[in-house]
Amino acid sequence: MISIIIPVYNEEEVLPALYERLTRVMKGTGEEYELVFVDDGSTDRTYQILKNLHEKDPRCKVIHFSRNFGHQIAITAGMDYARGDAVIIIDADLQDPPELIPQMLEKWRAGTQIVHARRVKRKGEGLFKRATAALFYRILKALTDVEIPVDVGDFRLMDRKVVDSLKGMRERNRFVRGLVSWTGFRQDEVTYVRDPRYAGTTKYPLGKMIRFALNGITSFSDKPLKVASLLGSLLSLAGFLYLLYVLYLRLFTDQVVQGWASIVVLILVFNGFTLLSLGILGEYVGRIYDEVKQRPLYIVEETLGVEQKEIRHG
Ligand code: UDP
Ligand code: MG
User: Fold this and answer.
1) Which stretches are transmembrane (predicted)?
2) Nearest to 189 by CA among 147, 127, 136, 145
3) Beta strands at 152-159 and 114-122: parallel, antiparallel or unpaired
4) Count of other CB atoms within 10 angstroms of residue 92
5) What per-residue confidence (pLDDT) applies to 265?
6) Paired sense of beta strands 33-39 and 60-65, if any
7) Pairing relationship of beta strands 300-304 and 33-39 according to DSSP bridges
8) How far does the centroid of ligand 2 lie from the alpha carbon of residue 181, in Å?
9) Per-residue confidence band for 314, with pLDDT thresholds at 50, 70 and 90
């Protein structure tokens, strides 16, 4: 059986079209399948529509969160509940074409355990989004040793083995695509052109995007923490050389170094740098704090078509 996981947050406009297209593609594959919708605390008619879909077609399963927990957590819940031998994650807004699924299944049958879908082109997304996304993937690649493929989102197929190992990773500030690669199973990719959103607006405003990027970097690299010690030593070396120069002028010449401007500049630069390092430290400490609290990743209010599981800790 194949499980399709679809995180949905206020997607009432796209659900009917999504259901149509997914059903057409999945029927075409001849496989048995289930559609696991994770309703991430939607406030519009999303849950009502999902209920109707479930009543019409029992292959539609629904997990309804008590509030918005975020995209990455929704995907995680989907994996906790999915029962397929292969699991496919797909966005609800039809930016990831369901028609790519047969190709992914083919690679999976040939023995690949993780099939990523890499976007060679993104349509209908602003320059800002495209540029920041491209930059983010490259920074992440430079900072981490885990082989996280570039320009790959969460649209992917995973074998049951991969999903089972992911289920053991309960970290709170999750960056799922990194965790997937971290497992080290055989990866391959298919490529596609990313369509514009079918309807509605993005559910990833700038704030969520920044948080997401920081989660990716902090979960898979500790290099930012070392920036402070590196720059610190460079700056103190520069300071020491400058001190020698000032002493030399004072002792062996009759020149005096002019003070005010240089002091102000130094204070600003050094304090800025100190605060920045503290901020970086704060990002990591905050995440440690989140982990230590050991709260569950999400709270399920209701499920349709699957039995609700007990809340899992840690
Ligand atoms: N999503 C979610 N919870 C959130 C934000 C988004 O489940 O808090 C879902 C959303 O419904 C969609 C997917 O995650 O299915 C990707 O979101 P979106 O298309 O808005 O992101 P973008 O493509 O603009 O980056
Ligand atoms: Mg989208």
Assistant:
1) 227-248, 260-285
2) 147
3) antiparallel
4) 27
5) 85
6) parallel
7) unpaired
8) 22
9) very low
Binding site membership of 92 for ligand 1 (Cβ less than 6 Å) = yes
Q: How far apart are CA 57 and CA 38, in angstroms?
A: 16
Ligand 1 atom closest to Cα of 11? 11
Ligand 1 pocket, residue 40 CB under 6 Å: yes
Beta-sheet strand order (sheet of 300-304): 187-194, 114-122, 152-159, 86-89, 2-8, 33-39, 60-65, 300-304
Phi first, then psi, for residue 254 (nearest 5°) are -105, 20
Architecture per CATH, 2-205+296-304 = Alpha-Beta Complex (3.90)
Nearest protein Cα to ligand 1, atom 3: 71
ipTM exceeds 0.90: yes
CA of 247 from ligand 1 middle (Å) equals: 60
Q: Choose which residue among 10, 71, 128, 198 to substitute to test ligand 1 binding: the one with the highest number of ligand atoms within 8 A of its C-beta.
A: 71
Beta bridge partners of 302: 64
